[in-house]
Amino acid sequence: MKIRALLGCSAATLMLVGGAHAAEKTLTIGVADALTGGAAVYGLPQANSVEMAADEINAAGGIAVGDDTYMLDVIVYDDKANPTEATNAVRKLIDRDGVRYILGFCCSGATGAVASFIEYEDAVMLVGNAAERSITTQGISNLVRTRPPADYTGAAAGAFVAKQGHKRIAVLGALETSFYASYVEAFEEEFKKSGGEVIAHEVFASKDRDMSPQLTKIREMQPDALLVVGYVEPAAFAYRQATELGMDVPRYGFTSGSEEQFLRVASSEQMEGVWDLRPTELTLQSTTDAGLAYHANYSERFGDAPSPSSPYAYDQAWALKHAIEAAGSVEDTEAVAAALRELEVFPEAVMQYLPVEGKMFDQNGQAYTANGAFQWQEGHWVFVEELPSDQEAYSRFLSTVN
Amino acid sequence: MPRKQIFLLIALAAFIALPQLISVKYYLHLSILALIWVIMAQGQNLIQGYTGYVSIVQAGFMGIGAYSTALMGSHFGLPVTLTIILAPLVTAVFALATGYPSLRVKGHCFAIVTLAFNMVIFIVLLNFTALTNGEAGITGIPKPGYGRGAWIDFHDRQVYYYFVLIVAVAMTALAALIVRSRIGQILLAIRQNEDLVASVGVASWKYKLFAFVVSAMFAGLAGALYAHYQSFINPEIFSVAQSLDAILAVIIGGSGTLTGPVIGAFIVVFLPEYLRFADSFRLILYGLILVLATIFMPRGIVGLARDIASRLGAR
Asked: Which sequence ranges are marked TM in the entry (chain B) (predicted)?
């Protein structure tokens, strides 16, 4: 009896002493992303990767703030890439769930809606895959984005295609989606500098699956090459139907789709030789050890390979951890937002960020990765070469855009 | 005091007290959206419920109202209050242009023609990027009033709630006025038997056009209020899917009644949010509830409530 009482007292004393040194608390973070609908190919992997990052951060001891340690808890809401839904989801996270840090955001329309009011909230917004340039041109101090804008990549892609010796290129894509349009605009500007000409701008909607009318028209124009920009699925149909129509021209694209996503629609033979000109993102041949570990862990946990753009959200979670630790507070969102802008690229980052003045995010809250040329070779995306990208110059340009 | 008036006063008192009763601001946000939907649904009810023409362009007109108020403010520097007043008038011009050819056909054909107009509006909003900024949308749409910290600060959601409540009550009163006027009686007659109306020498097309244009003006006003509340608009929210929601709001609440659209609007806004617990089954559940409601409550919630009240009264 005495021994039991002694053990009990010792345990209680240990708990008290431990509690005085480091209280373990929970920090709830939110994710608003497209979990259903056409954009779920980007949104769902992003939401998954935030949950995975949160578990990894917790397993590594959580977020240390003073004497406290915070374990992350993640609430995920579907915004269906719809502006009203996104607004509702974020309002719910902030107002009802008391969340201060909101991650995810794969798609520009929904992200733009939230960005329009987030600066007045006691919250920090970390944007992932949404590539519309205007998201980081509004001077919103509590917003950062891990993915570079589409036109930053488009310019590099235009220079690369021109270097291949093509003079007449036809564009087929989701040109009514603004960030694809801005990619093509920047592409065209660079392409023209080398004497090239874009001879067609054919459009498909994100729900279209039959591009043969546009491709037939393009085939008659006899271009040197084809550029396809759009969501993975319609782009895969475009590549497939181009081969079915007997078009034997080099095919370039901007899709950021994984091998698995493309192979659901097109065969490897139909994809052979296709180029994807995009931020380097996650492709095994070009990635670091952190990227390889991310790929392996994600595949094991979710039974599916991660999409190339999903680490934008994974990196958000780690960036947030480091910023909170640097700010020394979870309550002071202004300090955390400021700490994000002072953050250097951290070792857990999966994407290969190009720092601006030594920082991961520039003064606009924008991060930059290298751009790469990837080619489909025997069933896989193969990293061929890095595209010339001047993040410092682009950052200066971005600061001048209203 | 008649029982109906007592009910209206209680409902109004409840709406006035609502912000004080809500502890989570998120529900105030949803209530503002629902009140905006009340205005839109009252307009839809005029053409659908009272005139008997199912129009599938209400969200398109809402888009015209939203974009016109935003663009008039940014391009001409007009004050927000003025652009909100002008937005329904701009919408009316478009409604006149589309209503005249649309109303030459009846029934399903009218529905299909209006659906096509909604698609045209959507495509124009998406592709006329020089004016609308396309899919990226328009950001930073200002609130009415004199900015943050002013005596009446429209950035405060409670203030905006009361602002929208006043407009919604005024528009519901206007709808009641129209319905109870001679015009309203003719609209009802058109719904019952349009050929008979024509046979007694009434130019029914004028009344139908009136209902269509006024319905569009309600939507235009709702769009303007939405734009200034959200400070952001893009074409996504003015698609055919939203027009179908407006039809559903009228059907579920009670077609051809003034209370119906109010109830329907709140259901259309709140129900999908309450079903979030169902995760990816949310939309299936939402669809199922709507289908069952339409089958088992063809006269909507108001119709059902009246049936129950009359049965209780008979006892």
From this structure: 50-70, 76-97, 109-130, 159-179, 209-227, 247-271, 283-305
